[in-house]
Amino acid sequence: MEINDHVDLDQFMAGVKKRNPGQTEFIQAVQEVAQDIYEFIDDKVQYHEAQILRRIAEPDRVVSFRVCWEDDNHHIRVQRGWRVQSNNAIGPYKGGIRFHPSVNESVLKFLAFEQTFKNSLTGLPMGGGKGGANFNPKGKSDAEVMRFCQSFMTELYRHIGPETDVPAGDIGVGGREIGYMFGQYKRITGRWEGVLTGKALEYGGSQMRPEATGYGAVYFLRNMLRHAGQDIEGKNAVISGSGNVATHAAEKVVQLGGKVLTLSDSGGFIYDPDGIDQEKINWIKHLKNVKRGRISEYADHFTNATHHEGKRPWNVPCDLALPCATQNELDADEAEALVENGCIAVSEGANMPTTLEGVKVFHDAKILYGPGKAANAGGVAVSGLEMSQNSGRVSWNTQQLGEMLTELMDGIHAKCVEYGHEGGKDGSGYVDYVKGANIAGFKKVADAMLAFGVV
Ligand code: NDP
Predict the structure, then answer these.
(1) Which atom of ligand 1 is nearest to the CA of 265?
(2) Residue 3 has what pLDDT?
(3) What value, to the nearest 5°, has the Cα angle with vertex 326 and ends 398 and 241?
(4) Which of 140, 194, 319, 347 sits CB 3.0–4.6 Å from 144 for a disulfide?
(5) 311 is catalytic
(6) C-alpha dihedral, 48 to 52 to 57 to 58, nearest 10°
């Protein structure tokens, strides 16, 4: 093959669009990665000849299945479940399970694709996968959630295993759901093995796993700020979401001396001018995890706070922003509002929360911007440590895991700086963390794939 046989970026993206019609989220994720990778591999013949990017952008497989369950009124309900196994070049597939009505094949393919780069960045041996179902756990009884989880696992179990594919939680899948799914896996196979992460401590879970994504996103934020000679202390933060990632991100911002002004859910956001302190965060955790309530109830309870129905928090003036809810929750107008209001750093707890146009606004303004695949990698990193503890039949304590998490996030930040530093180009010293994360994540996976030949 001639070197020049390779297609250019536009031709490559045209092919991706043609092969994945209507899968907008997946196409968006591939576009964001491809533009950086194309620049990086421009003079690297081996990657072109082996069609590495084309192969990474094609999941190893997508399994889709019917999930039948019976609700409390004895109605038969039918949902669709998926597992996307994107790439296992550097380790077993690894990535969460999402239960949300918005779940479809495009969303899961984008998440699995991103996960491949994120897992590579952690330095741990994990490939990329993602799964889920268009099931809405909101308003369902525990018994209904249990029956759904059992039915989901009754199909999923044949596609996963501790050396094959190790799912975890994600939106709508927390400790309760992981427990039901693990119980069903164990019942069907007769084996206790580390097939899921995010388990409770009583049956093989890891200390620090619930905190890891949110804390990690704040450590990444701190690393970016330190690299630019700044710190979190005394700064105002706007956070979206009120689930696992958002509440733990808020907790760590408060611990490091910052003030948290907002949290949100799909119904709107709350603004608390007094700051959302640890006591209030504990109240929210109870509201969300035990009472399964809505964030609007916060403003009824803490009367200085206001609830803004149907709105997102990005117009609230702040120094720091942490989108921790879902994909495409921060668009170009909102990015501009953040920049104009003085925001200096954005760290993504969620996956792809900022649209491509929004990312461009942050880059043009040269504010610090940590993309999800780097900033929220602490969760999967501690999941990797949960796998090690399960297979080694050991358990590490909170302090040990806290130190490992900090080190892992330091390592990810350093890789982003190494590959994303533009100082040489425009002399500004600006770090393009998206480029850094994409290239560092890509290189390890690509080199492993080269070693395997054409498979
Ligand atoms: P949770 O289910 O615990 O919380 C999700 C939060 O986001 C809820 O407050 C939810 O509100 C809100 N939300 C969900 N969908 C929407 C929407 N369409 N519009 C507005 N708000 C929405 O999930 P997690 O905290 O675990 O996950 C949050 C993000 O972090 C996701 O992008 C996930 O992929 C990512 N992530 C999670 C990791 C983890 O370890 N859990 C690891 C790495 C990334 P509501 O209750 O109204 O739906």
Answers:
(1) 11
(2) 45
(3) 60
(4) 140
(5) no
(6) 120
179, 301: one domain? no
Please give the model's pTM, rounded to 2 decimal places. Answer: 0.95
Q: What pLDDT score was predicted for residue 421?
A: 84
185 shares a domain with 66: yes
pLDDT at 426: 60
Find the Cα–Cα–Cα–Cα dihedral 39, 60, 186, 245, rounded to 10°: 30
Phi, psi of 238 (to 5 degrees): -110, 125
Mutate to test the pocket of ligand 1, among 245, 262, 311 (most ligand atoms within 8 A of CB): 245
Closest atom, ligand 1, to C-alpha of 172:
2
Q: Which residues approach ligand 1 with their CB closer than 6 A?
A: 169-172, 174, 213, 241-246, 265-267, 324-326, 329, 349-351, 376, 379
Three-state DSSP at 194 gives coil
Residue 4: per-residue pLDDT = 45
Residues 230, 320 within the same domain: yes
The answer to whether residues 352 and 222 belong to one domain is yes
Q: Of residues 94, 109, 130, 280, which has the active-site annotation?
A: 130
- Which CATH number covers residue 271? 3.40.50.720
Pocket test for ligand 1, best of 108, 177, 266 (most atoms within 8 A of CB): 266
Last residue of a domain, one of 375, 394, 411: 375
Q: How many domains does the chain have?
A: 2
Radius of gyration of the chain measured on its C-alpha atoms? 21
Shared-domain flag, residues 132 and 234: no
Q: Is 351 a domain residue?
A: yes
User: Is 260 inside any structural domain?
Assistant: yes
Expressed as residue numbers, the domain containing 175 is 61-195
Q: Average pLDDT by consecutive 10-residue portion of the chain (455 residues)?
A: 68 97 98 95 94 97 98 98 98 98 98 98 98 96 98 98 98 97 98 97 97 98 97 98 98 98 98 98 96 96 98 98 98 98 98 96 97 98 98 97 98 96 68 97 98 95
Q: With CA atoms as reference, report the closest residue to 323 among 260, 400, 245, 234.
A: 245
Instruction: State the CB neighbour count (10 A cutoff) for residue 365.
Output: 15
